[in-house]
Amino acid sequence: MKRITYLLILVFGLGLSSQLWAQDNLTPERKQAIDSLALEKVKDLSKYISIIGDKETPWSEANRVIDRAEELFMQGSEMGVSSLVKPEIKYYPVRKYFERLMRLNYNKVEIEWYDIEYVSDLQRQPDGTYVGVITVFQKFKGYDKEGRLIYQDTTKKDITVYVKRKETQIGGRLIGFWDVLLGDIRVKETTL
Amino acid sequence: MVKNREKMKKSATLMSRLLMLSLVVIIAMGGATSCKSKKKLAREKAEAEYQAKVAQAKKDLTAMLNDETNWTLPEKQERLKTIKSYNIDDQDVKDLIVKVEAKLKEEERAAEEARLKKKEEEMSNKLRRKYQLIVYTLDNIAKAKNFDEANNQIEGALNLYATPDVPVLIIISKNKGYNDYDRPTTISKFMNYLKDTKKFNYDIESAKYNDDGKITELELIKK
What we know:
Chain A is an alpha+beta fold. Chain A is 37% helix and 42% strand.
């Protein structure tokens, strides 16, 4: 009986360790896939910001996109906002930032994110979460009723990304997935 | 006189007996010679037949070995079986049999591989055709020129699915039978995602259907 118990413990232990291995010992290919996934989430955010900021986006669509954009973030995350006319950087909860963005006092807004890349690669933390920092450059342009460019700036922002392995049951199957969540977005510098 | 006659009679009887005996001996000897010759002929014939069989076996085995026949694989296997059944005691034939056996085994393996590949391709083509509609509808959402057009596409495309909440699994990497997924989403959210990002860079990995032919689960893989 004791032997059977030991055997069961061994088999269970092996199964568990192989599962842990699957999530901990990432091959370069798997690591690259996760890096790309996190980068893509930031690119998705850039598209959402551009849609939310676009004055031609229908109100219902903008609100829907705000919901989607908010889902990209960890709870309590903040977005830094800067301006060439004010020296201080203000931080808003992401939902508030998106809502403000939707109501910006310009007739037309163009927001473009470019040079999106890692400044700090995803590193595994003791709790199994991978944390990295992605930097982006945001080009903001605001136009008046006459279509004149009345404000523009370029802001360098750092986004902390958290990637954690999670599991969920779908159709009776246990699916292991990588949950990418964005953290605070910090303003690094603002230029013309 | 009488004595003389009896002597003569005896001599005649003896002569006739001797004659008879000679005849019997001659006949017997003659018959035996003829029988011996027939056996020899039969043996010679059998030997010739055997040699012809050996020669034909060598010829066929060599032809099979060098791919010089028009026979199908089952025909070759049958011919090899027949040759083996002869139990030919000839080292050349024995060596050829070993070689041909190995060659036919390899051909059989290759034929099975080709059959499976063909079956897989047929299956894959069948699935591709089946998945074509899914790809077409999702791609159209991504290519829509504005929100209204995309929303119309979404409304139509959702008819393929059991509910708007059908789970969508996205494989980000496949490694040694182990899949890494993105956070699972629903088909409705995924369609809106395509509308927002304006790109559909996925292949269909699998789709599950219910009895009404509606999709109940969609598994995609990033290109």
